[in-house]
Amino acid sequence: MDWSLMLALLAMGTFGGFAAGLLGIGGGMILVPFITMIFSARHFAPHLIVHMAIATSLSAILFTSMSSVRAHHLHGAVLWPVARKLAPGILIGSWIGPWIGKQMDTQLLSVVFGLFVAFSATQMLVNKKPAAHRDLPKTPGMLAMGGLIGVVSGLVGAGGGFISVPFMTWCNVRIHNAVATSAALGFPIALAGTISNIYFGWGEPGLPPYSLGFIYVPALALIALASVTMAPLGARLAHRTAVRRLQRIFACILYALSIYMFWKAAHA
């Protein structure tokens, strides 16, 4: 691995970790497009690039989420009862998501990723006020919602914040608590998704050396190293940032990355 690639991966991990702490998105929405660019420049097998970018991003969240959630927990912002109710569905869904992704070609997977990111950005930018009486659903509803978050997160390689944060704010959870709780959900999403990507990618023809299933281990190591360092800084800033500004930051970043993934699909 040359120095330019190492520096690029460290820079991505720095930015992704900071965003994970700030926005509770696990970094995946940020990392996948950039990893896709790097893997394309390295001439990895075209039909595997997006699959590997998603798997590598998801595995990095294992490390980022632990660092991020610790910082949020120190602020007393994580709603642990909410996280516990969502976690069982998330574990199941995050295993299924990579299996669904394996059935898709790179072009379709890029479009799906771009659509989910654009939808998430719109949810945040519109900032529609929830009904005052709306609350989080009961346990069966939380199990189902956890399953949905897990499937989509495992499919697109993200920590789930692009669904869980809008969902929780829609149910009248304060955005700072929603971001912190979403960061806690990143670990079960990443754990199940990582194991699933190793299992379903094992022995896939065309994988480069040092791959573990669909995960490219050298990229994972460098991204994780940088992101773990930066996630607490993003988390601390999140608790000092106005709610509306936080939503706008979230939306603008996601719109830009969704555009790239649509472009990638068009040129696949």
Automatic annotation (TrEMBL):
Record membrane topology: Multi-pass membrane protein
Keyword Transmembrane helix: yes
Family, as annotated: Belongs to the 4-toluene sulfonate uptake permease (TSUP) (TC 2.A.102) family.
Top-level lineage group: Bacteria
Name of the molecule in the record: Probable membrane transporter protein
Record's keyword annotation contains Cell membrane: yes
Keywords for this protein: Cell membrane, Membrane, Transmembrane, Transmembrane helix
Annotated Pfam families: TauE
Subcellular location: Cell membrane; Membrane
TM region positions: 6-32, 44-66, 78-96, 108-126, 146-167, 179-202, 214-234, 246-263
